[in-house]
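Lab meeting prep.
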Amino acid sequence: MEGIPNSQLNDDGFNHSIFKEKYCVSSSVSTSHIQVACSSCYCAFPLHGNLLCILKAIDLSPQPLLLKGHHQHITAIAFGNLQTPMTVCSASEDYVIIWDIERCHMQALNGVLPRGIVIGTRLGHIQHLSFCPGDQVVAACADSKIILLSSAQEEILSVLEGHTSSVTAAEFCSWQPEILVSVSEDRTFKVWNQMSGELLYKSSILSASPLLSLCIHEESRQLIVGSGNGQVWIFSLIDGHYYRVIKEINLLKSEQKFLKSVETLQAQNGQPGELTGFSTNINEDEEIIETSKSILRITPCSSSSLSEDAHSFLSNSLNSVWIGSADGLYIINLDTSELEIALYFTDFPGLSIIVAGSCAVHHGTTNNVFTVITSMFENKISLLELNLSAVTKKLHSLKSQACCMEECLAVVARIPLLGSSPLNSELFKKEASKSAKQKNSGHIKSSVKDKPLVFHAKVKSSGYTTKPRMSMFSPKTNMPKQFDSSLKEHHTSLIAKEYPVDCPVPNAFQKQVNVADRPTPIFSLQYSGNGKHLACGLADKSILLYNSSLSGSPAVYAGHNGALCSVAWSHNNQLLLSASEDRTYRIWQVNRSEPTLVLSSEVFPSPIRLAQFYYMDKFLLLSSGPSLQLFMYHLDTLTDDIKRYKKKSFCRLAEKFLMTSGTEITSFSAVNEFYSYIALCSGCDHSVEVFDLNVARSIAVIPDAHCRAAHQIIQNKGSSFSTQQSEAYNLFLTTAVTEGIKLWDLRTLRCVRRFDGHHNRCHPCGISISPCGKYIATGSENKCAYVFDIRCSNFLNKLSRCTDTVMQVAFNPSKPQLVTATLDGKIQQFRA
């Protein structure tokens, strides 16, 4: 064996010692596609066909341990799970042998030939080995069978048969040792009870390419499966979820998005082409060949060994995995389905292998990561050491520089209003002072008049004939008490019951109502702040107002000439704001069927997509085309039937905000329940932009938030019946067709979780956050509504009593209740 000196790149703050090739050896035979192994202390690989080579990954001073026992070529190697004794298993077509590493070291030092325990003979071509959690059982994948062997002696415990092609990998479940999962070239995975030999689950065909690798992630209770064409599937292993698919990730598309984001960061910081390791520099003269990325190995990413920078950069998430592919190493965050880090072998000239045939990845006891790779085309094996903290530190620095924010963004206002802020605008400031001045001057003129002072003794009102009062006024205390029942009702209505924090998910079907005689899509659905009324915006140009129990006939508001785009409640629950495709918006009083304010289509060149009250009902906020417009308004609530045609309601534009890219706004969100300066907008260019209305400008942009334009963006606003921590209000959701739901943190402008599982391929299905901030509801095209726990990616409930595509969902702010609205005009109500 020959050791190659450590290959270090130039010390530019980033490239220094990212990848170190600690050892490289040439074998006399090819080692491509052979399972190699790496643990916290050792790495193992075949050498010259039938020799098993053991290296200490951290301390390289001892000589490698060469173990002889196989007569034919070694095809698979695996380490045991226990630290004492540390064992390794090797397999060839003649034997399956278990070696005690410490004992073999002692035997080699004493000049004795190390020997292992043969646990299997002539079992066929074994592609993969794995130990059970207690190391008592070894699973050997031989051809299309899985042979379970005893690790103490040569004994076949059972044989699992069912795959129709070669089994490429099999792993035991760490929290349920009797469960074994296998993947095969027949493109399916199977779940077995390895003690009884029973087949528990058989998946459908997942891909056109064979399945090559799998990983059972203990922290998230998930199964991750990788294929030969770069596809990754994530399945739930939680009891009762029946191995349902949670996410599907295309490694090539994730890589392209990652490289684009890195290139954007470089451009923003004036460092184009400086970030070696991410292949953002592409020579236009070179022919680009698109290749699939085979998923050779999937390994959990242990956060306990990450540095502080790396741990912070990886979103403090335990739910990340290493992906070993032919061209490099990747880290994928399973919560967000996004690529966090991509490192390519070709970007490091000091490496001997640039295309890997097989690999093994394991965290060391320090911040470094150890990797064993074999060459695809040459007979070489390398041990690499990756300094993960150097990569994450540079990326974190780039993102911090690109943000250029003086302080962390927050939804809850932390500073007072600026004097020049548009939120300080007053509609009647000048008019009120002028009218008051005129009123005072007129009063002075009328009061100064020369009139004779005459005392009339007979005029009782003059008071001159009455005796002056010598005692102060004292109230009567012996009056009978009169109880006003209306006062009691008003008082009890002010005492609101708090929303139950630990409430179960609303999943019990309660009621269904039809909004019209014929199918009519419902495009908007919103509860009032007190939870007593439910407003529905319909495609037939009308608005319906139901009580919270959906009983009785609804109030109808008509007047728009186009389908309703949105309906919003005021904070005082007395006003409704509606926007329509006829390019008008109207404000309605709840107790009147005629609009109080109408803004005509002449003001807006583009349709109004969304409108709402803002800043505790002080303003109106609406989007039209590429602009977000802030209006001040005045409502004349005169109820005189004779003078109602003389209404003096009007509004005035206070400020207009344009998207940086000039693209059309598809959705926006702002908090009206408390004072906040932040408004979030999603655009047709797939971006999300953050506006600070206090400083009247855009302060941040999230490019390519989705692969398509987000059709809805909502914030965690809570309600007056529940209390959340102030930091929880910094969470917001975006959803786009075909890409599920993403949860974002405004403080970091990063996606922290992604929710999939519902069907959303063509319709803009709505989403909603519960008042307690724990649950997310979404519509779906399979006539169901889904409820997710915001803390995990698995959906909790699938509400299947709907009759068509669920277009809108809404949580009741006062009690655990959920309503859904379908494309055929039906409203379903569910309770906890």
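Slide two material, second protein:
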Amino acid sequence: MADAAKYQKLASEYAKLKAQIPVLKKAYLDEQGTSNEYKEQLKAKDQALRKYEQEVDSLSFRNQQLSKRVLFLQEELDTIEATKKKKNRNAEQPAAAPTSPGVYSEELFSKIQENERLHKQVDDSNRKYQTRIQELETKLEYFEKECNQHQQVLQSTLQKSKDQIDRLQQEKAMVEVKLQKLESDVKSYRSRAELSEEKLDSVQSRLQDDLQQARKIIADKLPFIDTKHRDLNCLNLPTHDRKHQLRARELVSQSVNHLSELVQALSNFYTYSEQRSKIYPNDGINEPLSPINLVYCKYLHENVSYLRPCEQALRSFLGTLNEDSLTTLETATDLFVFSKNFKGLVGYMNKLLPYQLASIEEECALSSCTSTLENKNMDLHHSLKHLTSVFNKLDTYITLLATQSQNHCHYPHQNHFSFFVCLSKVLQDLDTSVRDVSKHYNSKVSLEHQLPTATQKLKTTDECIVSSLISMVTCTGKVSAFFSGNIDFFKENPGYRTRGSSIGTDTTMDGPRSGPATVCFRQKAATYLSQLSGPCPETVPHSIAVQNRKVLLSSTESREGLSKQLTTAQTRVNKLEQEKEHWMLELQLLQIKHDKETEKVQKLEKQLASKLASGAVQDSIEDNIIKEPTTRTSSTDAVVPQTSEAKAAMFGKLDMVSAGSSDAETREVLIKNHFTNRINEQALQLQLVESKAVNFHSEVRALHKQLQIAEKSKTRCEEELKDSSQVLAQLKDELQTTTKSYEGQLSMMSEHLASMNEKLAQQKDEIDELKSQKVQPPKEKKKFRK
């Protein structure tokens, strides 16, 4: 298992590395593309730099020519001035002489302007060059940062991909297991579907036959109607008005809708009240809730288990209403289930009321509660009591109406209208009480929200409670209007008449009467008649049935006896196994003692053989007999306490030594039998061990093959890992070389710029000197003229 886990681990590592390879290849290609882009940019920058160097060299060469030209002109000027001083010429000559210095000065001025222009160009090119270098440096830093970020993102994505691959592999294994299970389920479902289709065909054919038979029975048997006795006539199917039944069904469906809305509103009110009690007056997160609020929250959490059954019971009652049967209070048997569920809801509200009132009293006991807020809380206190009392009244009238379908509670039909009128009044009281609760709670909440201790969570919860109370007000208003609007329909007599009477009401017989279980009896009668007309099932003769019963009883008794015998035999086998283990241990101890005694007997025999000649045999035997008990007790106290049987056996062995060869032969036979048994047991154990060894050998061979395959895959994975590490090292080396080359180029460019700055400074100095020399010659002329 450990090797399998190791192989599985190696396989998972190999899968991880194999998944990393395309990511690394992509990263390598991206880095290679960026490096190529950097190389192209570097080539372009080198070309621009060479261009700038050529321009600078041309400018320096031009400056040298201009400086030589200026020197040559200066020398010519000096020679001209010297000739002016030495020679005295005519008046024409001094007039012509000033013309040559003017030409030279104009030429010099033009050269100086050209030099300034070139100097400006050099400055501009230098500035452009500096700005370009700065831009390139910023871009380089930005690209380096992006490279580092991409590297970090790549590492993080690699790690995430590893984790995701592991998770996906686990999910894949789970999905495969689920897929196999689903495939087996689909196969079983297909087989079951085929069986169900076959059963459906058989059931359809059987139902078709039953329908034809039932139609025949109805046509033959149903014209028999007994209308003479009133008690029997109530069990006949009454003739009724279907419009009245449809109207009743429509009203019940509307009442179901109104009740579902009321249940939803009550559920929301209780749920949001639970959230509020956990927030206020004590925050359940930061402050512990009071015991009253704890129980209150627990009871509020159980609201759905009391509200939903009421809605479900009324819906089930709606499902029992059919067009072919008339529904009245006497026949509405399922309405009693709704009354029971509603009684449970009212009991839940009675159980909840004390804690609800105690929670309001706790809120009044707070220090932040003002007198006006306390008054509003007490108003809510009284309105909640009144609401619970109204629900109790409503439960009383609903129970009274529902029990009319029970045999133990029958009121005259004339009293039913008064029941409905009282129920309508109670529903109006319910509407007014819910409106009072909503009004008082709204005023209470508006005062609470003005307090500084009111949190936003409390405000939102209170708003939800107010909205649920508003929905309760609308629901109770709808129910009250619905019931008061249809009170005339409830006042009408039921639209049916018993068979044998000409009118719907019979005052002499307290009106028409129909049993509540008429529909059930009709179904039972139809099934009974269908059974009568059907063929009789195969029966077994009485004598054979009695005999089979006796056989069955005897077989069951024998089975019970055998089971008892089996249990007793198992207990005996367990006890015998325990005794066997005990006696095996005793046998081992006795074997150890026997080996020791044989050694002692051999020593005694040697002593006897040596001392027979001297005549001291008897003394040595007595001494040995005296010493042996002490040695035996000292050797056996560490193992088990010595018994009288063991001592007798040991003394018997000494007697056997002295007795002769007959006892020795029996002892040897016993020892031989014992060792043969031991040899047989050892042979069986050896066979078992050999079979296990063969099994283990086959398993080891299979594991060895798996190990070889895993080692091959491991070597292949290691080679791929080495290749990927080499590629990664090459990428790192290329990155280092590119960074070093960029650094060298930047240093060379900085040095070159420094040298260019020095040259430009020298040229600027020379230009300044030339400008000063250009300005100085007129002054010297004035001095010379003076």
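Talking points for slide two:
The chain has 18 helices and two strands.
The CA atoms of residues 377 and 623 lie 111 Å apart.
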